[in-house]
């Protein structure tokens, strides 16, 4: 039942927005009583936290794939494509993230922990890229935290930007591919010459 509630809640939050949706609304769409739903999730915060945890498990499955050796542009882009497709399924969270984090302290704490865990993961990936020659040897490690923050800002906010009028002509898959390209482009100056040329060609094809 929990899975059904989460699935329906995500659909309603995406459609109506989280601030305009009550637990009673979700229960009504599930054709169950408000009390039945609250047996599993006593508050909206409990439900949003469960959704956040589910989303992060799905994202983590792709994020760990980014740690494998990058041998070409496709291997670099594939995990990001998977991550951004997951994010699109939970679009409400990223469009309303500021309000969600301000309203729900438990979700804020989970998000803060996620940020730190993700930072450790990506810094380790960047270090591995440097050791394996994916990044040029001249790249200094003290730049990696700044690179991580750039990647995190873009990946965390692209869905809000994608909803602006100038992007309305793009399909969902076109939006995902475009913002994967934007994210990959952040890494371009760091790559070795061969990979930089290959990624540049990939960006021309996919932008």
Automatic annotation (TrEMBL):
Residues 1-59 form the HTH tetR-type domain. Gene3D superfamilies: Tetracycline Repressor, domain 2. GO terms for molecular function: DNA-binding transcription factor activity; transcription cis-regulatory region binding. It comes from the Bacteria. Signal peptide: none annotated. Residues 22-41 bind DNA. PROSITE patterns: HTH_TETR_2. InterPro entries: Homeodomain-like_sf (IPR009057), HTH-type_TetR-like_transc_reg (IPR050109), HTH_TetR (IPR001647), TetR (IPR025722). Keywords: DNA-binding, Transcription, Transcription regulation. This is TetR/AcrR family transcriptional regulator.
